[in-house]
Amino acid sequence: PTQAPGPGPTPSDCFSTWEGLQAGVIAAGLFNEPVLTLCPDTLFEVPPSSPIAITVSRTTIKCGTTGSRTNGCTITGGGEEGSQHFIIRGSVTDVTFAGLTMVGSESAPSDLSQTTASIIAEGSSSASATFIDCEWAGNVGSAVVMITAPDSDGVRETERRANTRGLAVNEDVGFPSFRGRAMTVSFRYCLFSDNDVTSGVVTNLAGKANFFDTQFLGNRAIGTTILNLFDAFVSLQNSCFVESERKVAQGTVFIEE
């Protein structure tokens, strides 16, 4: 597969703390195309319940000047109830994350009715985001990436009921009105390794998920690696799965008919 970008020089103006990045994202909303650069070789510790919400189109968060994973930007933590790092909301388009490594908390969620994920992509059907050369390792929760419709579309109640009933979605939930109403998320040159989740590593509820040159290594899921429900769309190119463990869904990539 094509190689992701390599390391570059250290930028003179970059963020070195999670709190600084939070403030930078808020301030970046004043610009048409906000670009936020993380300082290379930096560990960002996320306090409990402190994810960063992305609500401005064309927001870019990248590691170093080149946006390469080899620049060493690691995001860790998110609280005892599972990893929560970024939330994408609204009708934002062309959001980009490049070269980030997101490492999860060590504790599993105690309440399966709560949706926890490193990335919660709950934008509208017109929203879009791309992850380039990013890695997720050791995340614990409902999913690593959760693609879902906004809260106003009533999807949260369906998620809670699905998780509580062990993914028996069609047993009593039926066919929800939010089918096909979630956002589009693309992954290029990404890596998912050693994550442990209760639904799917990538759980796609009514959205679109595209994978290019992406690897899944040693992940464990009660559902499966890529779980697609409610008319969700998925595409994969040059991607591979190694030693994936699942308990409920059939196949490494499950698509609800």
Description:
This protein is 10% helix and 38% strand. The protein is mainly beta. It is globular, with a radius of gyration of 17 Å.
How is the secondary structure organized here?
Layout: H1 18-28, E1 35-38, E2 42-46, E3 52-54, E4 60-63, E5 73-77, E6 86-90, E7 95-98, E8 100-103, E9 119-123, E10 128-132, E11 135-137, E12 140-141, E13 145-147, H2 155-164, H3 169-172, E14 184-188, E15 191-193, E16 196-197, E17 200-205, E18 208-212, E19 215-217, E20 220-221, E21 224-229, E22 233-237, E23 240-242, E24 245-246, E25 253-255
Parallel strand pairs: 1-4, 2-5, 3-6, 4-7, 5-8, 6-9, 7-10, 8-11, 9-13, 10-14, 11-15, 12-16, 13-17, 14-18, 15-19, 16-20, 17-21, 18-22, 19-23, 20-24, 21-25
Give the structural class. mainly beta
Strand order of the largest sheet: 1-4-7-10-14-18-22
Helix count from the secondary structure assignment: 3
Mean pLDDT: 83
For the terminal residues, how far apart are their CA atoms? 31 Å
- CA-atom Rg in angstroms: 17 Å
Task: Tell me the series of helices and strands, N- to C-terminal.
Answer: HEEEEEEEEEEEEEHHEEEEEEEEEEEE
Strand tally: 25
Unreliable stretches (pLDDT < 50, length at least 5) are: 164-177
As an assembly, this protein is: single chain
β-strand amount: 35-45%
Global geometry = globular
Helix content: under 10%
Largest sheet: 7 strands, parallel
